[in-house]
Amino acid sequence: MIAAAFAALALLASPATAVDPGPPTAATASPAPIPAAVPVLDWQPCAAGRAWPGGAQCATARVPLDHRDPAGAALDLPLIRVPAADPGRRIGTLVLQPGGPGGSGVDFVDDNYADLPAELRERFDILGFDARGVGRSAQVRCWDDARYKKAVTEALGAPGPDGLARAVAEAEDFNAACVQASGDRLPFLGTGYVARDIDLIRAALGEERISFYGRSFGTYIGTVYADLFPGRVRAMALDGAYDPVAYAEQPYAYDLPQFLALDRAAGRLLDWCAATPAQCTFGAGDPHGAFDRLVRALDADPVAIPGRGTANGYTLVYRLMFNINGGRADWPDLAAALARAEARDPGSFLLSPPSPGSFAFLTPNVVVECTDRVYPPGEAMLAARLGAAARLAPKLGPAMAYGPPTYDHNHAPACTRWPAERPSRHTGPYTAAGSVPLLVLGTTGDPDTPYQDAVALAGRLDNARLLTFAAEGHTAFGRSVCAQEAVVRYLVDGLPPRDGTVCADEKPPAPPAASSVERRGSAPGTVAPGASAGARDGAELIGNPYRAGSRT
C-alpha cells in the first residue's frame, strides 16, 4: 500500500549509541545477543497510503539479522507513524502490533488509524512496523504462488485415511522450499529477535518507555518484549492473548484447545441457525448435518469460481475459520453465505479460494511459529495428536489437521521436522518481573485464541489485570464499548481496570433486513463490494478483526 515510500528511503546504518539487549534467555546454547547500534530514522512523508491529518510519515530501521552479531548482515524494517494530533498533550509513542504471525504492522496502522478512538490519535504518535520476515521486511518465501495454489486447491475438507501421509509429504516439500528460497533468514525470524528490534526502534525514537497495543499473535510479541525489557514498558494492552508457555514449550497441548475453540464456535453458529430459521435458511432445519454434507459434496464436486479456480470443502472450512472471528454480529452474513454455498453459488464469500494475498500471510505464519515453537519429535506422537484433534473437533478439525501448511492448527507436520536452528526464539520465563501493570483481555467465545489463554497469561505475569469480554468472536477492542473504554483509559492514564472486570456488551445478530454483505444487491457469481473474505485478502481491521478478508 505504501511500498513506494519505503523504496524511496535510503538504507541507513550509522547509529552511534548501543542498546542493552536485556537479560539473555535460555532459548538456545548460542551466544547471547550483544548490544546493537541504534538505527537512525529518516522520517519522510509516505508516498502512498491515506492522507491522515498531520501526515503519515515513513522510515526504515536497520537492525541486525542476527542479534548475536550486530556488525554482520542487516535487515531493513519499514515503519509508519502518524504524529499525535494534539502535540501539546502528547504522551509518547503507541505501537500497534497486529496478529498473525504474518500481519503487516504498517498496513495495520494505515488501515485502522481512522477507527482509533480520538483520544488515542490526539495523545500518541501511532506507530507500526513490519516485523522481520513479514510484509516489506525481507519477507520470508517458501512455496511460490503456483505451488501454494495447487496445495490449497487439492486439499480436502474431509480428508481420507491418507490424510496424515499427505500432510507430512506436503510439509516436507514446504520446508525444503523454505530452505531453498529463504535459508539464510530462517533461524532469525523468531519473536525473541522481533522484541529486540522493537527496543532498537524505541531507542531510535528517543523514548525511554513505549506504550503498546497487541492483538492475537501481537500479544505474544508484547509479552516477550515485556519479559525482556519490563522497565521500558509504559503501558501494554494484550487483546486475544496467548498462553506463552504452552505456545512455545507445549505446542501439542496448546494446539488442541485451539481446534476445540474453533469447532465449538462453528457449532454455536449452527445452533443459532437451528434456533432462528427466519434468520438462517441454511440446512432446512438441520444445519449441523447440512454443513457436514456440504463439505463432502464440495469435495466430491468443486464449484468453479470465475477467475479464481475452484472451491471445495477445504475452501469452505478455511474461509469459515477466519470469518467466524467477527462474532455474533456476523452470524446472519455467515448464514447467508452458507446458504449460497449450499446452492453452489460462486458469489458466496465462503467459496472464495485462497489467493496470493493469502499466501503472503500464511508463509510467515508457518515459518515464525516453527521458529518459536519446538514440537516433540516422532511420527507416532504426531499421528496421535492430529488424530485426536480431528476426532474431538469433527467439523473443521480434520481439514485443518491434515491440510497443507497454512494456519496455526496445521503447523505440526512442518514444525516437527523444521530444518533450521532457532537462536531467535524466546523461552521465558514470561513474567515481565518489575513491569507496570499489564492489561490482558480475553473473549470467552474466542475461536482463535481460547479464553483460557488470557487467564493463563494474566496468572503468569507478575503484574497483570484480566478483563473478560463475554462474547463470541476474536478480540475485544473495537467490538466492545466497555472494553475499548477500559483500554483507552489504561493507555492514556496508566490506570488498568479492576482485575476480573467483565464486559458483556457484544452486538447481537442483526435482523435480516439489516444484515449487510450478502444483501447488497450482488448478482449471482459475484462478490458484493466490501463483502467478507476474499475482497481484501490480508487486511486486519479494528473492530471487525478478520472480516473483509482479513488474514485470508
Automatic annotation (TrEMBL):
Keyword field: Hydrolase, Signal
InterPro entries linked: AB_hydrolase_1, AB_hydrolase_fold, Pept_S33_TAP-like_C, Serine_prot/Carboxylest_S33
Residue span of region Disordered: 503-552
Domain Peptidase S33 tripeptidyl aminopeptidase-like C-terminal, chain residue ranges per copy: 412-503
Signal sequence extent: 1-18
Domain named AB hydrolase-1: residues: 93-259
GO molecular-function terms, A-Z: hydrolase activity
Family label: Belongs to the peptidase S33 family.
Record protein name field: Alpha/beta hydrolase
Species, as recorded: Yinghuangia soli
